[in-house]
Write a structure and sequence with these properties.
7-stranded antiparallel sheet; 6 helices; 10% helix; elongated
Length: 510
């Protein structure tokens, strides 16, 4: 809309001023008391206008010619680090081995049950003392930590204790054992650590202080039930510049949409929880988007256990059938803010196994669409331009004649104010707001059938033109409505609709 407004204002005013510059190049012998000349004869479509605009990133023209403004938010991404971070920190930094068979003290979030974890990195180190008079051989095994079907194991020999001084010990702290390529396969949700200490005669004894450390764990794959847990997503704001030149008026978008684009490579049933979803307006209000899907959540697509490595995609759209967006986007929105979290296994079905990999992620991106289909009542936008009319000193009076033929179903009226360097209003462009471009009549579907046409004359007498010449700025206002030509109807603005503007001028030369 802002591009079209700018086009209309510049077409009627900017082009005229540039053409008037030709008068200053005339020789005195060419002067006549009155000179009439054409300025503009433009027959163009909205598509051609849009093609001339440098930045069309927010405008989309559909195959059927419909025009919509599109505003896209940032991509909110969460990776497997959020979940893998929980698994990595599940073990304490140092584990005392207190018996010959004991479970590793994994501290997993409540409800999480892991069936398998493949390691792509990890280190195992130990420290063990011998309190016995005889030397011992210590053998440690973790039956649920396997590589190529064989459990992780190590053994070490420790000399006998003399009864005084420090106990003999063994450690691999300077050269930890690598866990790369090993897989945790818990038994009844438990990974056991077992050891035996034997004398040279084969007698079973107890070791003394025995500590193990498993560090730098990184996982390539994990499988199981990952609990019904809430993971914080992120907050983003989609800025909407449609109303950046807005002053007042009502606009109703008949079919606005707010779409959530979802991508998910986690093999876990998940539901998005939209914690905050608001529309910010030009008058400073914050209005909440309401929908049953906000209360119940939006289901994430996800790959099943036999689809490891795949990314599932889906789109969920809030529109007027499932929310109040059509009401809110008539309030002059400047931004849409949202905060989206993810809730895993929302149904709590512990029998449904899921998976994550080191490359798993989910992404959420929001897009706001405002199709130019609806109704407008006294929508006013304005902009201010620098001008210099001092160069037209030879012109005494000036009269414009504007002829408009319009296939768009929009009534466009204009007013302009000539401002001094201090911002004081010196004069106006029209004597009252002038409807320059009448809207076309439409059929029941809101599509133009009968073009609107009108001829407008505006005259600047000697006193007014002298006053205008000192102006430094021109504040232009456009008034857009559908209520004059199509009262009570929603209309469609299409790229193929034509606008024909003819502007002629008659100047009285001093």
């Amino acid at each position: 809309m802002k591009h079209f407004l700018l086009f209309c204002l510049l077409l009627l005013i900017g082009t005229a001023c540039s053409k008037l510059n030709n008068l200053e190049d005339w020789e005195v012998s060419n002067f006549q008391p009155e000179v009439a000349f054409p300025i503009v004869n433009s027959n163009t479509t909205l598509q051609e206008i849009l093609n001339s605009v440098e930045d069309l990133s927010s405008i989309v023209v559909d195959p059927n010619g419909g025009i919509r403004f599109r505003y896209i938010g940032d991509i909110i991404t969460r990776t497997s680090d959020e979940i893998f971070g929980t698994l990595t920190s599940a073990l304490p930094p140092l584990v005392p081995v207190l018996s010959k068979k004991m479970p590793l003290p994994f501290n997993l979030p409540n409800g999480v049950k892991i069936d398998r974890v493949d390691l792509k990195r990890g280190e195992f180190s130990y420290y063990v003392e011998n309190p016995n008079a005889e030397p011992i051989t210590v053998k440690l095994t973790m039956p649920q930590l396997l590589k190529d079907g064989k459990p992780f194991t190590f053994s070490t020999d420790i000399a006998g204790y003399s009864g005084s001084g420090a106990r003999p010990s063994a450690t691999n702290q300077l050269s930890p054992a690598s866990l790369v390529g090993y897989t945790f396969l818990p038994k009844n949700d438990t990974v056991y650590i077992e050891y035996e200490a034997k004398t040279p005669a084969g007698a079973s004894v107890n070791a003394g202080l025995f500590l193990v450390r498993i560090t730098n764990l990184q996982f390539s794959y994990a499988e199981g039930f990952f609990g019904s847990l809430l993971y914080e997503g992120g907050r983003d704001t989609v800025k909407i510049d449609f109303f950046q030149n807005y002053i007042k008026g009502d606009i109703y978008f008949a079919d606005p949409k707010v779409s959530f684009f979802l991508e998910n490579a986690f093999g876990i049933p998940s539901r998005s929880i939209v914690r905050d979803f608001k529309v910010f307006t030009v008058d400073g209000r914050q209005l909440s988007i309401e929908s049953v899907f906000l209360r119940n959540g939006i289901e994430f697509p996800y790959p099943r256990i036999n689809e490891v490595g795949q990314t599932k995609r889906d789109t969920f759209t809030f529109d007027k059938t499932n929310s109040n967006v059509d009401v809110l986007f008539g309030s002059g929105p400047t931004a849409v803010a949202y905060d989206v979290d993810a809730f895993t296994n929302p149904e709590g079905n512990t029998g449904q196994k899921g998976f994550i990999t080191d490359k798993s992620f989910y992404r959420v991106q929001v897009e706001v669409e405002l199709p130019l289909y609806g109704s407008v009542s006294n929508f006013v936008a304005q902009d201010i331009y620098d001008i210099d009319l001092e160069q037209y000193k030879k012109i005494k009076e000036l009269e414009f004649k504007i002829v408009a033929d319009n296939e768009m179903p929009l009534d466009i009226a204009m007013q302009g104010y000539f401002l001094s360097g201090t911002g004081q209003v010196l004069d106006s462009l029209f004597q009252g707001t002038a409807q320059i471009i009448p809207g076309a009549k439409t059929n029941a579907a809101g599509i133009s059938t009968t073009p609107g046409n009108k001829t407008t004359t505006v005259k600047f007498e000697e006193i007014r033109f002298a006053r205008m010449r000192t102006a430094k700025k021109l504040r232009l206002q456009a008034y857009i409505s559908t209520q004059n030509s199509n009262p009570g109807k929603s209309v469609r603005v299409l790229a193929s609709q034509k606008v024909n503007i003819k502007v002629g001028a008659k100047a009285t030369i001093q």
